[in-house]
Amino acid sequence: MLTDLAYWVRTFLAFDVGTIKGAPLEPLLEKLSTQSVIADPHDEIKNAVTNLLAECNLPFPVTPYNHEFHNACCQVARSKGYAMETYPGARSLHPFMPGGVVMATTAYAHLDNKSTQIFIALYTAFLIYLDDVFQHDIELVYCFNERFILCQPQDDPVLDGFASLLREFPQHFGRVVSNIMTTSTLNLVTALLLEHETQNMKSSLDAHNYPTFSRVMSGASETYALFAFPPQIPMPFYIQALPEDMMFINNVNDVLSFYKEDSAGETVNRVSNLARCHGVSKMEVIHRLSQDAATCHSQVLRILSPHRDAHTAYANFSQGYIGFHASLARYRLNELFS
Prior knowledge:
Elements: H1 2-5, H2 29-32, H3 41-56, H4 67-79, H5 97-106, H6 114-136, H7 138-149, H8 157-166, H9 169-172, H10 175-197, H11 210-219, H12 221-226, H13 242-263, H14 270-278, H15 282-304, H16 308-326, H17 334-337
Keywords: Lyase
GO molecular function, one term: carbon-oxygen lyase activity, acting on phosphates
Pfam families: TRI5 (PF06330)
């Protein structure tokens, strides 16, 4: 998810394929390797996406950009003293706000507390900025966690604002949930450093779980999963669903990102790493991730079924999370369904 965050834009797709029906996918990579090959690889990607939506019984909603909410986020950011300059070359959070706005107004549109929605938008915008800084100033990222723990200045005005925002988790969520969100975020920072220090590492064909390990660290999926549940819902009502919720978040993103990544010839991603480790094609990995995402989605719904409010919150989130991908031209999904 984080890699995609750095490139979010305000342009949106202009189609709605609705709820798409499809056949169930094979459950194992070994079985998938025997599936027939579709002549056009884009057709196979399209089938994987439609099967995912059908298995999860989720629509493909497109959400227009909310300029009013964008302005409200910018106003709050300025009131908190965050760097929001707009002149060229400024270290500023302002250019990264659209990605946060889209996330908050799709996946978390069901939250009644507008302050929490704005918090999520700002958090996401900071993550986009962090990834951007990582690309050209690795030292600032290297020092972030240490400086955060020691309450030291970050030597970057935007990252100072990010450190300040992380200390506001308890204002929006319970203590345990806030702690998980904090450690998840710090792990995301560590994942950037891990990526940097292992960029020339030879991939072991026996390290089957490493691609998923690094993927979970880099996506802050614990945080984004927990964002879906407002604080009035008791944490014990939904915490047992967190592992499956996280897998749903990561797998859906990998499946819905694959078309644009494959079209761009990208090979440094979880799908490519899993394909190398298992000795199968990338499409076979995509089918497996899609099936696992659907399985996890069903499991989350079953786990939450005794608690109506938690169940409803996740159901709204899962639909909005699909809508998040549907609403961004970055994913180029309109090319699959045109």
